[in-house]
Design a protein that fits this description.
Number of strands: 2
Bound molecules: geranylgeranyl diphosphate
CATH topology: Farnesyl Diphosphate Synthase
Order of helices and strands: HHHHEEHHHHHHHHHHH
Distance between the termini: 15 Å
CATH superfamily: Farnesyl Diphosphate Synthase
CATH architecture: Orthogonal Bundle
Largest sheet: 2 strands, antiparallel
Number of domains: 1
Strand order of the largest sheet: 1-2
CATH class: Mainly Alpha
Length: about 300
């Protein structure tokens, strides 16, 4: 069982929380997505294959936990949590393609293009990206945040200045020697932007005041960076079986990573410092941020 051991969330049963969040998100995604039998069935099967392949659902859980921290509930946050998971899954499908990371194994299963072929995998990713906007448009707008703001939030995090831009910078950095500042630029866009968007959307669904949205932005940014540093560490310390995806890929592809640039020990220290910064901004939320706090603690200590 995952029990948070950070003082502010000590004893919080994160295993139960994640199980409840995963169940709620899976049921909502199942409702939002076209049936696997809807024409063209291959496409809908491919979308569902990756979406229900056993991802950790961390971004949706962060979205739901952020809504709670701002005094909101899960029902208003759920569509936005689902939208973020669709974007995340699309990005993984495309990242695994031969033209990018060329990976055979993701979420413990053969990658989408290995099962459905490259053409369908590209289109399943495209359709999941579009699905995210369709779902976001079906969410309940809060008084302070009309649909325009919610859709903009998703579009900005997924677009050329954030997720896609980060992926391009990552591709271009392969085999190059880059500085820690350049690496941070990639991590901010490739990873942190979507985590940050997840918590911001949770807060917006709860109609949070601007100062709470600012705190969530700060939290998401730091947790997002810590998440990627840990991801880089796990790539060199864990096996493919433990990760459910191919381990050691970063080294094999001569990717710039924190362990490659500053070493493992310093990378661990950096991840801890980033998480501490994330914890600090949660103080004004007090007890309502217990789940967010426990999630940040878990993201730092995770082993897969
Ligand atoms: C193709 C536009 C485009 C972007 C790809 C997702 C991505 C950007 C690259 C994949 C490689 C990578 C290191 C991404 C950073 C984000 C990350 C660590 C994703 C894995 O997230 P988890 O661990 O995965 O939450 P699950 O499968 O549990 O959802």
């Amino acid at each position: 069982m995952l029990r948070a051991d950070h003082p502010a969330s000590a004893g919080f049963d994160l295993t139960a929380y994640l199980a409840r969040a995963t169940d709620a998100v899976n049921r909502a995604l199942d409702r939002f997505l076209p049936r696997a039998t809807a024409k063209p069935a291959t496409l809908h099967k491919a979308m569902r294959y990756s979406l229900f392949a056993g991802g950790k659902r961390l971004r949706p859980a962060l979205c739901l936990a952020a809504a709670e921290a701002c005094g909101g509930g899960w029902p208003a946050a759920l569509p936005l949590a689902c939208a973020v998971e669709c974007i995340h899954t699309y990005s993984l499908i495309h990242d695994d393609l031969p033209a990018m990371d060329n990976d055979d194994f993701r979420r413990g299963k053969p990658t989408n293009h290995k099962v459905f072929g490259e053409g369908v995998a590209i289109l399943a990713g495209d359709a999941l990206l579009t699905q995210a906007f369709e779902i976001a448009a079906q969410s309940e707008a809060a008084p302070r945040y009309p649909h325009r703001d919610l859709v903009m939030e998703v579009a900005k995090a997924a677009g050329s200045l954030q997720l896609v831009g980060g992926q391009v910078a990552d591709l271009e950095a392969e085999g190059q020697s880059i500085s820690a500042a350049q690496l941070r630029y990639i991590h901010e866009r490739k990873t942190s932007a979507l985590l940050c968007c997840s918590v911001r959307l949770g807060g917006m669904s709860a109609n949070c005041p601007p100062r709470e949205l600012e705190a969530l932005t700060d939290f998401g940014y730091h947790v997002g960076l810590a998440f990627q540093v840990i991801d880089d560490i796990l790539d060199v310390t864990q096996t493919s079986e433990q990760l459910g995806k191919t381990a050691g890929k970063d080294t094999a592809a001569s990717k710039a990573t924190y362990p490659a640039i500053v070493g493992l020990e310093k990378s661990r220290r950096i991840a801890t410092q980033l998480t501490d910064k994330a914890f600090a901004v949660l103080k004004p939320f007090r007890g309502r941020a217990e789940a967010l706090q426990a999630l940040a603690d878990y993201l730092l200590k995770r082993d897969r």
